[in-house]
Task: structure prediction
Amino acid sequence: MSEPALATPPLPTRAAGLYDPSYEHDGCGVACVARLDGEPRHDVIDLALTALDDLEHRGAAGADPTTGDGAGILIQLPHGFLRSRVGEFGISRSQLPDPGSVGVASCFLSSDPTLWESQQRLLEQAVIVAGQQPLGWREVPVDLAGCGKTARDVAPEFRQLLVGAGPEVIDQDEFERQLFVARRIAELEAGPALSIPSFSSRTIVYKGMLTAPQLSRFYADLRDPELQSALAVVHSRFSTNTFPSWELAQPLRLLAHNGEINTLAGNFNWMRAREAALHSNLFGQDLERCLPLIPDGSSDSAAFDRVLELLTLAGRPLAQSMMMMIPAAHEHRDDMPPELECFYRYSSSVIEPWDGPAAMVFSDGRVLGACLDRNGLRPGRWLVTDEGLVVLGSEAGVLPVDPAKVIRRGRLHPGRLFIVDLERKLLQADGETELEVARGKPYGRWCDEGEIRIGDLAERTAPRVHEPLRTRQLAFGYTQEDLRVLIAPAAEAGLEPTGSMGNDLALAALSECEPSLFSYFKQRFAQVTNPPIDSVRESIVMSLESRIGSEGNMLSEGPEHAIQLVLDHPVLTNEELERVARASHPALRATTLDATWPLESGPAGLEKALDRIAREASAAITGEANLIVISDRALSAERVPIPAMLALGAVHQHLVKEGTRLQTSLVIETGEAREIHHIAALIGYGAAAVNPYLMLDSLTDLHGRAELPGDFSQEEAVAGLLKAVRKGLLKVMSKMGIATISSYCGAQVFEAVGLDRDLVDRYFGGTPSAVGGVGLDELASEALERHARAYPESHRRSLPEHVEDSSLPAAHAGLLPQGGVYAWRRDGERHAWDPDTIAALQLAVRANGDGTRAAERYEEFRQRVDVENGALAILRGLLELRPAGDPIPIEEVESTKEILKRFTTGGMSLGALGPEAHETLAVAMNRIGGMSNSGEGGEDIRRYTPDPNGDQRRSRIKQVASGRFGVTMHYLSSADQIQIKISQGAKPGEGGQLPGHKVDPYIAQLRFATPGVGLISPPPHHDIYSIEDLKQLIYDLRSANPKATVSVKLAAEAGVGTVAAGVAKAGADHVVIAGHDGGTGASPLSSIQQAGVPWEIGLAETQQTLLRNDLRSRIIVQVDGGMRTGRDVLVGAMLGADEFGFSTAPLIATGCIMMRVCHLNTCPVGVATQDPELRARFAGRPEHVVEYLFLVAEDVREQMAQLGIARLEDAIGRVDLLGHKPLEEPDGHKRRLLDLSDLLVLPETVDPRAPRHRTRGPEPPDPHFDVRELLDEAAGAIAGGEPIRLERRITNVDRTAGARLSHEVVAQHGPGGLDDDTIQVKLTGSAGQSFGAFLAPGVTIALEGEANDYVGKSLSGGVLAVHPAPESPFVAADNVIIGNVALYGASSGRAFFRGLAGERFAVRNSGALTVVEGVGDHGCEYMTGGRAAILGPTGHNFAAGMSGGIAWVHDPDDHLAVRANTELVDLERVPEDERDELHALVTEHLARTGSEVAAHLLEDWEISLSQFVRVIPREYARALEHRDDVGGPKTSEFRTLAA
Amino acid sequence: MTRDPRAFMGIRRVADPERDPRERVGDYGEIFGVLPNEELRRQGARCMDCGVPFCNSACPLGNLIPDWNDLVRRDDWKAACEQLHATNNFPEFTGLICPAPCESACVLAIDDDPVMIKQIEYAIVHRGFEEGWIVPRPPERRTGYRVAVIGSGPAGLAAAAELNQVGHEVTVYERDEAPGGLMRFGVPDAKLEKWMIDRRVEILEGEGIKFEYGAEVGGNVDAGELAESNDAIVIAIGSRVERDFEAPGRELDGVHFAMDYLYQRNRWVARSQGHPAPEPPPGAEITAAGKRVVVIGGGDTGMDCISNANREGALSATLLDVYPELPSNGRYPDSPWPLAPKRSFTTYALDEGGERRFGHQVIGLEGDEGRVSALVGRRVTGSSSRTLEPVPESEFTIPAELVLIAIGFVHPAHDDVVAGLGLETDKRGNLAAKTFETSRPAVYAAGDARVGQSLIVTAIADGRRCARLVDRRLREAVPAAT
Result:
């Protein structure tokens, strides 16, 4: 949830500095309890509150540990209770209306007592206006001592208003509607000072800024046995902020939400636009009084709640409203009932999905329900007892329920509703509700009759073009690189091209090459609080289907909604655009607006033209156009194209404001868009479809110039290019965690860097823009400049201006500019790492002990970076350092050694780098007392032993990334710091990739992979879908190595500060803010260039947010990205960094020359390659890196001396020492416009004397289960190895059981641990998350009961078994026994599960052997090794991305073929030589779990065998055969050095 | 056609296509050739399309080397020819006589042989002429401004070409009888046959540039009048005052500046090919035939002297280089990659005969009846002029009947046009024109006259840059009269 500020006074309501309340996020725990008999009882409430307590570890506290982020409960309106308390409302029992005719408003009045009277009056008045009767007020008894100090300081007044139904109310639904109207009237009038958590005749909410255990202590009502309900929903909140707010607690009026709506901005805008058309007979005129429905700055949960409420009050069943807002992924499923598919299709014409990870629990008092987002990114587990008690929660085990009474255990499935209907007294969890809804109306017929396809429109040919291609390319700013590097390769391969190394390009706002307006927009991405989606491996949840046409009244339901043009994807060919723009179809009425302006009106003409097209759009709508094409095809010598983003923004914003936006779709026909980023930006700002005509036209020319293969037809080229664009769009959406283009459309998930704020507000309202700058005038001038290049004659220019230096291609003016974006060119874009800079650095570190010469050459380097070149490309180049006092002698400045301790190298994996380069960095960092970072790829244990000369080749920082490559207990145990890489500056929101040619046997061995087979890390960490998941992973890693600090690496973007605050609250020691310029070994080019922002912005926001939350003292902040000189270090420190990460510069010191071919394995200097021939060319030595970092540290010291700063610590957070550098030449360059003042703010609420760096650590975690229960007794066994057997009970609050024990085993015995089954632990109960994570060899844990998510994470050699209690009445094989994402990154060991597992079972397993009796969706995803025997059903998308290992699936009914993702795997019979292995596994499963399924299979093994399907990756099979040739072992895994 | 990113690992650099030294030393024809098409494409494929192409940076012209290497690989010679001309007006000259700092900076040169950039450049332009792609392209319209360019060396020609392209009327004034400056009178035909200069000048004439030969501004052409009748003047007269040394016997007969010798030899070759060229006054002939020749100075000029001496039939030809022998990788330690090495590693002339002695310094000349008979020298150590140290007791004597001084140039001539227009010079004696603008309004300087002696490629680049400034100034000024 992105949480805004709504209530309580001290909350900043408007952004100050870089903090913006809209960036805030929640992660939470939810649970609900119900009795199927529908009888209200108090124990339901008690049980729910107990469950809430058990979810406490998912919530969080801030700097004040007694103040929670929020907890609450929703129950049925308790009539018995009300009857007993009528006196408190000041009425008699006889005055109390009957149930159904009485409602209660639960209010938070202002904390200012002088306002209470007027607020009460106001609400009463509103009730009367709505035709209902206010009956009396009650002061809710609360125990203020029971909440934390921060909460108490801002506590509101708690009162309830009793309301009776008015005489005209005909039924309870009508009563509910009127209570809603009354509430909205009061809310709109009172503003944020009054908040009404619930106002209903069916439900009531108690909530507050409390921890879960505080809730019932705080509200005496909750302890009153007369307070009774048949259902209860509870919620515990973990927010990234610690600002006091009572209002933000949940449940809301209808729901409790654990998750995040990524598309909020779009949903919000579309809802606002919809309001004009809203109409409901049920509401009549009253509806207008309730608008605007969603207040500005609402949280995503609150906004969702409002819309859900309205849809439901307007007559749709709650379940149906939920299905409309969070539709199941239906686009690529062929097993969905057709009527259900039609319902979803129809719904998509009414409202776009609200997309993002979510577990929603909802209730209107009659129905209790729950659902997940379409991708199932949140957990939900439920059970039913034989007494009709239903319990559902974020975790299994939230209530102690006698296993003998549990008749069914299940989990929430993505896209499937869980419904408890208390009126009908039934539970529906298998799609029954959905079918009922889908059969309610003839949705299929409506769709069939209404929907128009492109094929239905008359054929047209593309318009004739008069201007020559080259002229048009020049006018739109095309470069040769656009054609050569982007368009041609994409058309040929159908894929976006890949590149490597970081983006060191000048920011668009600092560029001297007139970059397009698109370049000022940077893609935002999901990190921590919501996961990116894997658009490749999990493509079944993704959809590009777009709809064009007008949209009607959301509250109505009829065939008219379906009448829309449906596109498979939003990119139109030139012919298709013609068909659409000139359609003669009764339902499509298109108008084209001319997005060019007359040259003669000069720069000022741009604004006039924008006003004109906005006016014309209004007029078109008045003329009933429902499709507006905004076209720049009218480009000519006299007409200049308007930047497409501006044209779109002008029309979109104008129509939204006017309330007519939904009457039309906007289609952009532009020559400017030529990259995936461009098209994504247009759609992100509201375009329904884009026709990038010039990009497509350019293909003809590429043919002519041999850029494309001769046998490639024009049609093939267009098809290839469009395919690449489609894939790219999916990736851009997915990195923000958005699955469907319809909810991406208008979601504005971009931020602007260096655009004038007024311009942003006017045309891109709502877009974050931390740095002000370039405005309409400059954009117009640059558009004119491009135009001049195309039409020099029209501009009376003799020489083209685009070449900076010597080149005057006058005779060849027809040539496009070089570009110089992807590879440096002298006359192209400026790069911070230009040839002179690289050469200067390499010369400086190769002075061979000649200190004077090294200093001289470093000075040249420094000049180049800080003055002549680099500084002109980056934000910090605009800043100057101001003295803190008089200069001091350099001897008084702290030593070089102290400064070097703050330096690390960035996470560069062995794999991306060759072993020589990787070890060179490690040795160098260990020599200077800094830390090197392993990157994601494991580490050779030989490096743990020091060299004879004392050098250490060990990386002190061990990285844990989403692929978990090489992450074993031993690896973690050897770390001084463990770093969770959430995002990487070069490609935030995406996974890593190591191409197959770099996976040589050594790399494969370290990563537990197959040589030659490419490795991909998934975009999300599959155990971090929320902030509470991150908290859990931090806990896991602390358990795995209690001595190491835990770091979290984030990438800079708007809102990163809030995420960093969440990271601090999650208990991390260390957070890294990486700039967009960070490097990569392989990434799509658009990601390197277009995602993320400079670290200056992210770091400043982080510092401001941490200070505001009083969290800065708890965490070390490191900055990383493009660090080169002492100046970079000092600016970083002043903006708030304690530590500094260097990556590219140390690589350059070792010989890297920014070839940008890391992904090709052809690095000619042997740095980033595994090729032995090239590695032999590596000439780097640790001395080079040591010398470089010494020079930087000396540089820091010299500047500190001049600035009068003795200790670097004293500079941290000193934003007052930074200011805008006066520009020497007011040269009219746009750099003079950039405004960084928001970066230099010390939040006004912060005590200026408070420390601005880390002074203390995080709160220590609660004592670990192993420490409490196991370690003492097992100590002897660990030390001596004599077997021991322990029995204990376990509950869901005991997390990561076994890891701490395993750490001791490995610490004492190394990676090999102990003999199998040396330490046997038998547990009973519900185990908390990460059960059995990192289990070491020799440790065996058997659990009788059930376990939650992440069982056996990174299993490292131990043995796990989970089975139900023997007294459980249900059939084990039909019930869920473990949660989602089991065995994630397991590398060795065995695991047996008697029952069903959740989603993503054995994801990225690289060596463990496992047996389970059924799995959810995405089973064995990304598996690279090991064996999985699946004795029961599999979900969808089985084996997606699986590149190694083998799965044997018992599939007697042949279901697997349709459910498996066979992109990489073959389905076969089990071959002879694997049968024994399978038999042995199943036999062990029987022995360890008592599995009936196993027993049954073994009874007639030959028949069973014939029913098994072997799932094997093709590449892996090939590798195995190859090993046959050389006589190696066949089916056993590669054993490894790193064990 | 996707590039094979591993091509550089598989394909070796081949030898430059040269005629056999034993054959070519018998004539004055060109010695460099062009590799076969397929070989050129293979060599082009060695280019790694670097993320940071140091070649592009090292080339004073900013030649788009990776781009045209790739076009050659793809067999798209026409596009390559366009790209080549986008930054370089005269690739046929640089393709033959540029010392190719691009190749020294080539990333492959870090630990391998660099890409054959120069050969590919020459092959592209060679092909361009063969195919008829290089034709006059007169500007579509004229600005009405008149510009005089003084000097027709590479800087002057480049400035003239660029200024003409954008529509200004350009006249080039050349002191000698034919265009090209040192390209014509310093460089032997073996390296650059003079018809190539004529071919290019014909194209420039076809584009509308006028050439005046035998026109000595400040002499037979009045500088003041020239300034009056033009909107701008570009001075590109080169750096032609030779560096000299003081030593006993310097005044002896038979001791000459190399350039005097080369002028004579080049004119002799021109006459032998039927082109009119002045003959030296009687008695002033300088010839190496039958003599023992010693050349002082190890640069290109010295090598060109050796080349001519070999062809004339000298008894012996010895070149004394004051600097030490180059390390085997061709670089002194203080000029590592990507810097250009200070000296050529090998030169064509020595392949044809003669010898080079490193670390040899001249200290005197001995004569016989006023004519030089021997050179006295000593050995020295040190790799720069500041660090030279004599080796004790290393003096030696070499018999010599002809001694040629090829130790560089100091600055442009200060008489003639410089005096005629009253232009200021800087402390090194070059025209004071830091931003191309001289001390006199509307008078600009480019090339060696401005920056001191340098490479042909620097001269072209300087001419181009100067043209850009001149053009900007003209556009800023009042509209042209016509």
About this structure: Chain B touches chain A through 54 residues (CB under 8 Å). The mean pLDDT of chain B is 93. Residues 61 and 185 of chain B are 23 Å apart (CA to CA). The first helix of chain B runs from residue 7 to 10.
